[in-house]
Amino acid sequence: MHSLALVALLAQAPEEQPPAPPPAPLSLRVNRAITKGVQFLRERQQADGSWGGFEGEHPGGQTALATFTLLRSGVRRSDDAVQRGLKFVLATEFKSVYSHSVRLLLLDALGDPKAWSDQADRSLDFLVQTQVEGDWAYPWGAADASNSQFALLGLRSAHRMGLSIPEETLVNAVKAIYRLQDEGGGFRYEHGRAPTGGITAASLGGLTVLAQLGEGRSAVEAVLKKHAKDLRAGDDWMVAHWNAGENAYGDVGWTPSFQYPYLWAIERWCGLSQRGKLAGHDWYEEGARWLVDRQLDNGSWLDTNESTCFALLFLRRATVTQDPSSEVLDDELDALRPPKPLTVAGDVPRMREWLAIGPWRSEIPGRGLEKLPFEPAKVSPRDGAKFAKRDWRRVTLKADGWVNLDEALATECDGGFVALATWIDCSESGALDAHLWLEVEDAWRVYVDGVLVGSSQRQQGAIDGSEACALKLAAGEHLLLCLVEDERGAAAFGARLSAKDGGKLERAPKLALAPSRGKGK
């Protein structure tokens, strides 16, 4: 009797589940990412050995960059992809600062300076001759910090290959870098722009290069010493603004633009200066985690050659090892990928009717939304009414895309922000759990009934409708207020209201320019 009961109990007992495997170490994830990235570059190489791109302006530049990246990613010099890329580079007539600079990086990475001295000398001479007042341009057009950072990397490679850099070139380069530093310590792409994390890191890395090349040269050492305080300010700015996933833009904003060159600039600066931490953070670990989480299934980043190269050049600080156990971890590693970001469905209609007012301008670019000239809770929009020394105006947006508020308001919005308002009536549709999607380029804030529900300090981003915030509205009427900054260029604005999964709302609320019960009149 007892035996039968015990058997019955055992039969009902749940089977013990095996423990979940431990997460894969970051080093294995990095190694796998590098392997997949290298394979992507191999597959993108064309029949003539090149990686096409910008061949009109920068012939050979993409090919030199991709070949250099393969070498720095652990691919042997004798590898067919490297040899075909090198053959194309050697047969190309280079004509831009970018291309000549990356060719010097490639020739240095080949590890045989005597074999490539003639080509290296020609590229070095080009860089010296095209420097203007310490800066570099394409060489056509205006000079900028991006061209200059590549030129300095080229000079460093030429120096490593035993070539001599004129002292005057180095002195003028130091002076030029500091001319683009702003009062807070960050560095700009060009005059009139806000400082960014990428350009600041690149400039600090360039100054580290110049200190190395100028060692023992009194004129270079003197001008560097003169700017010692400015160097500390730049260092402090970069430490204060470090974020692996956000390229700082101005004092409080950030931009998704040039994210991969930004990380490569961080790697160069921290590597050259032997810095392991930024504000107590392990910059390599945080950057590597951000990158491996965003690698596409085809092994690339953003499905472009250049972004993939910049990502690999960052990751390659880790040693690539062919661990025989890594293949069995593929399924686990795929499971560790973050979910794909939520997107709005194409059939979700745009919110077309708005009341707009502004712009209000700020003396400090990118800071207009920090000190508002009014209290959002006191906003009561009405067509034609005055508010905070401005007039509310009715604006009808496009049904098939964003509008330029410069044109819609017939005024220039650069350096300011515009307020846009509409009423959402959930009286009949009931409580709303939704997402508001914005087509904007710069910083924004969203208020519901005067309460902040979403914001971003992103600057100069793609106007792709990906900026979003959640809206949870009770039944009834609610005032939606959007503050949209226009740092420069087009004052873009568009808006769509979706279900919380990004799809079309089953029961859409009513949208109106005035509340049905007369509020705001």
Tell me what the CATH architecture of the largest domain is.
Alpha/alpha barrel
In total, how many beta strands? 18
Total helix count?
Answer: 16
Predict the CATH topology of the largest domain: Glycosyltransferase
Low-pLDDT stretches are 1-14, 318-327
Which CATH top level class of the largest domain fits? Answer: Mainly Alpha
The major β-sheet equals: 7 strands, antiparallel
Helix content: 25-40%
Q: C-alpha Rg, in Å?
A: 28 Å
- What's the oligomerization state? single chain
Whole-Å distance between the termini? 84 Å
Give the domain tally. 2
CA-based shape: globular
**Helix- and strand-based class?**
alpha+beta
Relative strand content: 15-25%
Write down the overall mean pLDDT.
91
What is the strand and helix layout of this fold?
Layout: H1 2-12, H2 26-44, H3 61-72, H4 80-90, H5 97-109, H6 117-130, H7 145-160, H8 167-179, H9 197-213, H10 218-226, H11 228-240, E1 247-249, E2 253-255, H12 259-272, E3 277-278, E4 281-282, H13 283-294, H14 305-315, H15 330-335, E5 353-361, E6 386-387, E7 390-391, E8 393-396, E9 403-404, H16 405-408, E10 416-425, E11 432-438, E12 444-448, E13 451-456, E14 467-473, E15 477-486, E16 492-493, E17 495-499, E18 510-512
Antiparallel strand pairs: 1-2, 3-4, 5-8, 5-10, 6-7, 9-16, 10-15, 10-18, 11-14, 11-17, 12-13, 12-15
